[in-house]
């Protein structure tokens, strides 16, 4: 793969650093009117909630009085985080690996059996892979983790009426989508010769935004809210693993976890109206999902993306469960 020209790299950082780094956050926040976070009586579900942006949002929810259920793969990390939160209501947790759709269905079943209904869902879990990895369900790892499992979770929670009629759903997307036009048939590339990690990640993130538009239209008869948000450039463990050069260059101006989670908490608290059918929220404002001329494609609709995800989910669900090897 050809290296990115130095001139293009410089142009990228000059254009976007003032906005997406902590610099942009501090400048915009001067004009914000902050209200207290009052989430008493609410129940939140936060995926990827044991660390990073997800944990920061979960902590704010719990401190505001919500009962927060955090979901992640590692029970030790979940327990440590839950014990670290000083809040009126204890943080609880459930384990699920979002690279495995069967664990997402099992998660929904656990919540259904508990009788709990959700006021806020924060779909935060995500990952970027440089090399193609197939799951034991024979799908591309980052596609399943970043969008298919998210879609299955939202759909299953709606089908089981676990999301309240006035619930808020927030997808944590990424600027990684901005350079990619949606190609529905490329959402789950399993051919190593065609796979490019950043593109797989970017398509999944754009799909997150488009699917929120789909649910907003489909559920418009209720008072539910469906948002996609961009946390900015945040110094997370995931970003450090997948983009070490990016972190090395910008370490001093990257946002911390609380800044990355700020718009999540704002959306959960304020539930602002959204005027565009498709939008991404960034620093408490509704913004365009396209910044380059080559990415819009009016021939591809949010319904097309949701239909593709439903088709893949149905095909996987019809397969026998993978045989687990003995330890």
Top keywords for this entry?
327 residues, alpha/beta, eight-stranded mixed β-sheet, 8 strands, globular
Overview of this protein structure:
The mean pLDDT is 94. The protein has 327 residues and is α/β, with parallel strands linked by helices. The protein has eleven helices and eight strands. The chain is globular and about 55 Å long. The chain is 44% helix and 13% strand. Strands 3-2-1-4-5-6-7-8 form an eight-stranded mixed sheet, sandwiched between helices.
Topology:
Layout: H1 6-20, H2 22-29, E1 43-47, H3 52-63, E2 67-72, H4 75-84, E3 92-95, H5 101-114, E4 118-123, H6 141-159, E5 163-172, H7 197-218, E6 225-230, H8 237-242, H9 244-250, H10 257-270, E7 280-282, E8 285-287, H11 302-317
Parallel strand pairs: 1-2, 1-4, 2-3, 4-5, 5-6, 6-7
Antiparallel strand pairs: 7-8
Beta content: 5-15%
Helix content estimate: 40-55%
Write down the secondary-structure element order: HHEHEHEHEHEHEHHHEEH
* Global Rg: 19 Å
Q: How many helix segments?
A: 11
Q: Could you tell me the number of beta strands?
A: 8
Please give a quick description of this structure.
This protein is α/β, with parallel strands linked by helices. It is 44% helix and 13% strand.
């Amino acid at each position: 793969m050809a290296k990115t020209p130095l001139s293009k790299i410089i142009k990228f950082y000059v254009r976007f650093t003032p906005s997406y780094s902590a610099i942009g956050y501090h400048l915009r926040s001067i004009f914000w009117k902050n209200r207290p976070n009052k989430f008493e009586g609410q129940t939140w579900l936060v995926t990827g909630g044991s660390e990073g942006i997800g944990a920061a949002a979960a902590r704010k929810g719990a401190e505001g009085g919500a009962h927060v259920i955090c979901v992640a793969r590692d029970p030790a990390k979940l327990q440590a985080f839950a014990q670290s939160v000083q809040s009126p209501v204890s943080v609880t947790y459930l384990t699920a690996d979002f690279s495995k759709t069967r664990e997402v269905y099992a998660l929904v079943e656990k919540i259904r059996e508990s009788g709990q209904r959700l006021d806020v869902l924060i779909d935060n879990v995500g990952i970027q892979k440089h090399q193609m990895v197939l799951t034991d369900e024979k799908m591309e790892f980052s596609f399943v983790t970043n969008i298919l499992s998210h879609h299955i979770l939202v759909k299953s929670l709606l089908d089981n009426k676990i999301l309240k009629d006035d619930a808020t759903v927030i997808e944590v997307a990424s600027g990684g989508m901005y350079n990619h036009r949606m190609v529905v048939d490329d959402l789950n590339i399993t051919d190593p010769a065609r796979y490019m990690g950043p593109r797989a990640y970017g398509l999944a993130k754009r799909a997150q935004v488009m699917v929120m538009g789909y649910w907003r239209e489909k559920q418009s008869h209720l008072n539910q809210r469906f948002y996609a948000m961009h946390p900015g450039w945040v110094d997370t463990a995931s970003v450090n693993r997948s983009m070490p050069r990016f972190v090395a260059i910008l370490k001093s101006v990257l946002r911390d976890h609380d800044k990355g989670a700020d718009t999540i908490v704002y959306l959960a608290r304020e539930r602002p109206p959204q005027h565009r059918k498709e939008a991404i929220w960034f620093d408490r404002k509704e913004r365009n999902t396209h910044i380059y001329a080559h990415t819009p494609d009016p021939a591809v609709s949010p319904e097309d993306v949701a239909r593709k995800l439903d088709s893949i989910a149905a095909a996987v669900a019809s397969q026998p469960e993978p045989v687990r090897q003995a330890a």
